[in-house]
Amino acid sequence: MMILLTGGSGCGKSTYAEALCLRFPLPRYYVATMRPYGEESLIKIARHREMRAKKGFETIEKQTDVGGILLPRRGTVLLECLCNLSANEMFDETGRECDPFTQIMDGISRLSRQADNLILVTNDVGADGEIYEESTLHYIRLLGRLNAELAAKADHVYELCCGIPMVRKGALL
Fold first, then answer.
1. Which among 145, 155, 59 has a CA at the least distance from the CA of 105?
2. How far apart are CA 77 and CA 118, in angstroms?
3. Global pTM?
4. What is the pLDDT of residue 129?
């Protein structure tokens, strides 16, 4: 089963995603896509990893190429988040050349085949009416295209507002 969680920044998606994962049996994998920058982010990552471990999550740090993940056993996977993954794939520091849309979609497909449940967290971007420079617009278009494609493939799509899930597809679990 695939579940896509979307909404604005700071609307409770991550908290809801973790709570949703706890409804499913172990093992639980948390694919963390944030690229650490500086000491403060490393401290934050360590704190979050410890908090998730207490909830039965095994953290997998993977900033690009999520299709390269090989899970030790089937279970529930929480990918946090498509926004970071998209930026990381677009602006890969290793110089690797790839089509970010295809790379991400193929990676999620490979990950999905290994999981009983896959929960994807993303942001609703591009609806603010602002004018951005071209590289930012490219990122917004990429994320919008990914969100639309993944929503079409997902069994359930929830939009969160103030921590409250609104069903856009499927049923509330």
1. 145
2. 5
3. 0.93
4. 67
